[in-house]
Input
Amino acid sequence: MTTSNRQLRVGVAGLGFFGARHARLYAGHPAANLVAVCDIAAEARSRVAAETGAVAVENLDDMLNDHQLDAVSVCLPDRLHEHAAIAVARAGKALLLEKPLAHDAATATRIVEAVEAAGTRLMIGHILRFDPRYVSVFDAADPAKIGDVVHLRAERSGIRATAARLGADSSILFYMGVHDVDAMQWIARSLIGRVYAQKREILGNGNEDSLFAVVNFDNGAIGAISYSWAWPDAFMNGYRATLEVVGTRAAAFMDCSDQGFYAVTGDSIGGGDTHLWPEINGRIVGDLADEIDHFVQATLSGAPYVQPYRDALDAIPVLDALARSAATGMPADVNRDI
Output
């Protein structure tokens, strides 16, 4: 809770899977006032407005012009981030931008430049920065504890229904891969400078089915990344993620395959999310709730955000390099001179 009675006046742009959850979390936060929500889809904006008590608006420009806001969550598809993020920045509002920052490094750089020119604030929704498992690995990888990093390895697997739903509008790298690139650079305390990737496309979803890569860090560590959303839809919990870091003195790893909850019927076994955004007693809790709480409290108080936005920017050129390498079958250097 803040020490004052002031509330952060917030709007949410884009009311899909994440935007609807952002809106609910703001609406239930004691230090936030969800003023307005916008989406081009009338059904989505009407539904979320009815659930939260916010005003429903068709487009972002009207929301910025017609309502007194301190901050905006932009939860649009990554290829639509540029216009929305720059509009929010030029309006002088604090911005929580869902990951990834943008769909390529040049666009991400333009967004950052607009934020800096406007002198406003930017936080990227990298939810793993609020996941106790990943934060614990980061703490365990302190150089004083782990020594020099020898290698890192990350896996993120999902179901083919996700790939089919997104189609050619997204990529496994930008929808899923940004999580692990950001986490690996954060935990390694070093940037990735060179990559070698291969991909497989056979399911016909318009994007990569699987992509595997070897990456080289500037501090000499090597890394391995495996991404897939080719798993059948019955895959337990719909996703699996692991990450390990091994140093000269110690090592650490996390595995979220087991969420600790199982639902068993006569012919199947399933589970459910218990960490990211589970709904417990009618409330969304977990990592996403902590992320929204941090954005509200830090924006009100002026405290730094947990992740500097330029750390989030550092992940995007790596994704570009991985895409180039996978397309050509050759290693690629990471170009940060955009």
